[in-house]
Specification:
The protein has 11 helices and 12 strands. The protein has 347 residues and is α/β, with parallel strands linked by helices. The protein folds into 2 domains: 205 residues, 3-Layer(aba) Sandwich (Rossmann fold), CATH 3.40.50; 92 residues, GMP Synthetase, Chain A, domain 3 (2-Layer Sandwich), CATH 3.30.300. Strands 1, 2, 3, 4, 5, 8 and 9 form a 7-stranded mixed β-sheet that branches. Strands 10-11-12 form a 3-stranded mixed β-sheet. Strands 6-7 form a two-stranded antiparallel sheet. α9 packs across α11. The structure holds guanosine-5'-triphosphate, 2-acetamido-2-deoxy-beta-D-glucopyranose (NAG) (2 copies) and magnesium ion. The site of one 2-acetamido-2-deoxy-beta-D-glucopyranose (NAG) has 5 residues, from α8.
Amino acid sequence: MFSFKIFRFSYIRSLKCIQIFYSSQPQQVEKHVGKVVNVAIIGAPNSGKSTLINNIVERKICAASNKVHTTTKMIRAMCFENNTQIIFLDTPGVVSEKEQKKYKLPASMMGACHKSLRCADVIGVVHDVANRHTVDTIHRDVIQMLDAVKHIPSFLILNKVDTLKSKKQLLHLIKSLTNGQIAGNPIPQARRNKNKDNEENNKGFSNFSDVFLVSALNGDGVKEIKDYLIGNAKPASLQYSPAEWTDQRPETLVEEAVRAKFLDFLSQEIPYSLKTELEYYDSTQEDKIICSVSVECPSERILKLINGAGGGRLNQIKSHVRNDLVELFKKLVVIEINLKVRHKPQE
Ligand SMILES: Nc1nc2c(ncn2[C@@H]2O[C@H](COP(=O)(O)OP(=O)(O)OP(=O)(O)O)[C@@H](O)[C@H]2O)c(=O)[nH]1
Ligand SMILES: *[C@@H]1O[C@H](CO)[C@@H](O)[C@H](O)[C@H]1NC(C)=O
Ligand SMILES: *[C@@H]1O[C@H](CO)[C@@H](O)[C@H](O)[C@H]1NC(C)=O
Ligand SMILES: [Mg+2]
């Protein structure tokens, strides 16, 4: 169906793209004065950082999945509204060295959060209220990162509130995650319980300036975050043109979208052992993108497992990837996924 030649740079057709993707001097991009805010989104793995950003920018730029460590490097996703450019920095969930080895993750991943903090005007911490094990504690590494950049304002986002049967526990939870303080003000007591409050001290971060309750999945509360960010943007000349929505090459986004879908569909550690690579990418046609991705499997057995009976499983994955890519590029996408077995290096 396709000729599988490497066709990596077919999309760079205008000078503007070249400047945006390859210039070391971003000021070459046409000057446009408006307001800008750089927002680093950090948090524990799987808390919904990428899903939240996609919901706000209304485009599936950041790959998301139901498994941890979907995002492995910092990527920017932008939107432009009310003459304001919001630049989100999506980051990998905090990761230990042990996990990095276990999941064969790139070593650069560990530094990606710190890199994002250096670029940030404001930091959003996403916290998963659906995870029973971590629900009342801000991850130790997140607190450490916030402490290291005390001068940058930060806000807390309680995500996945759609999973809570009762919202009663939320006030208590907020108290725990903020050590009872928001923007220097003590949180009013709903019901006093002295012993419990003492016991809960220092599981949270004491200097959040705001708290939001949202569902990144269904969009509840997300508009409030967007308004808040627009309100906090500073006048500046835009770093990207209003029409740009990411700093990533479209090829990279395709590879990441495929990887995420394998994470969604395969169990345990199997999907982490796969290597996705773009083979073909053509966006020369106005109304559609044609691409092909190879997925290298560690063994014939795993290749068969992914394929499923009669290729059924692979077809299902492919159709989900296609839907995501349509929500990313906002045009028709034709995609081929080719499974192959990794060749053992010859002696
Ligand atoms: N029920 C529910 N699920 C959500 C919500 N937000 C995200 N999720 C799900 O949580 C899972 C993780 O979402 P991601 O956006 O990939 O999380 P992440 O924080 O970017 O994860 P990493 O990049 O791996 O650190 C996905 O299966 C999402 O569909 C929400 O508000 N409600
Ligand atoms: C609290 O955060 C503000 C920014 O929102 C910062 O200026 C201030 O120094 C921080 N205070 C402490 C005690 O860390
Ligand atoms: C943008 O501005 C319009 C009118 O000034 C306002 O109604 C709208 O809520 C604003 N949008 C955001 C996201 O702030
Ligand atoms: Mg992510």
